[in-house]
Design goal:
single chain
Length: about 190
């Protein structure tokens, strides 16, 4: 199964690289993408052999500034160590991360419905990429608390309100219907 996932990731990256090669891009872009691909492969091999290395590897990936690598490591760590193994690491690093890395972490929190990291989501409802990711995380996590947070963004005329309304219809938490109804009534 792991070999299949690795093969799919490699094929996906190859297709992405192939699809992005255009005449207006410098030809020097490929070695960087290849280096990222190799780092991702190494991360998969390390985590497959030693899941306990996940917190250190995630720390390194979040500080790298390479979003492809960061997201790959977060997903690989999920598969090998499980998302709960990274909660302490993410909580500690989050305040020091740039906006793009915070967004990646918030999307990861939402996909995994990590209510242990709810405070990070709550702190991130500000305009920008991390704010948009926080809205996504809240809609995915569901719950009365998140519904109230999202309602407040819409009622308060936040710049994130259009995103809340767009994603509110795709909420997938325990009370997704209540979230959708609440948000749609505020249009």
């Amino acid at each position: 199964m792991k070999k299949i996932v690795s093969l799919i990731a490699a094929l996906s990256l190859a297709l992405t690289v192939w699809g992005q090669n255009t005449l207006d891009r410098p030809l020097t872009a490929f070695p960087t993408e290849k280096a990222t691909h190799l780092k991702c492969q190494d991360a998969w091999k390390l985590l497959s052999a030693q899941a306990s290395a996940a917190p250190e590897l995630v720390t390194e990936a979040l500080k790298s500034g390479d979003r492809v690598y960061t997201n790959a490591v977060l997903e690989y760590a999920d598969e090998t160590a499980g998302p709960r193994a990274l909660v302490k690491t993410v909580r500690k690093l989050f305040p020091t991360l740039p906006d793009a890395a915070k967004a990646d972490v918030l999307y990861w929190i939402g996909r995994n419905k990590l209510t242990d990291l709810q405070k990070l989501v709550d702190q991130s409802f500000q305009p920008g990429e991390a704010g948009e990711a926080a809205v996504f995380a809240a809609t995915q996590m569901g719950g009365a608390h998140n519904r109230k947070q999202l309602d407040a963004l819409v009622k308060g005329g936040s710049p994130l309100a259009p995103i809340v309304l767009r994603l509110g219809g795709k909420a997938s938490g325990d009370d997704a219907d209540a979230t959708r109804t609440s948000l749609m009534n505020q249009k």
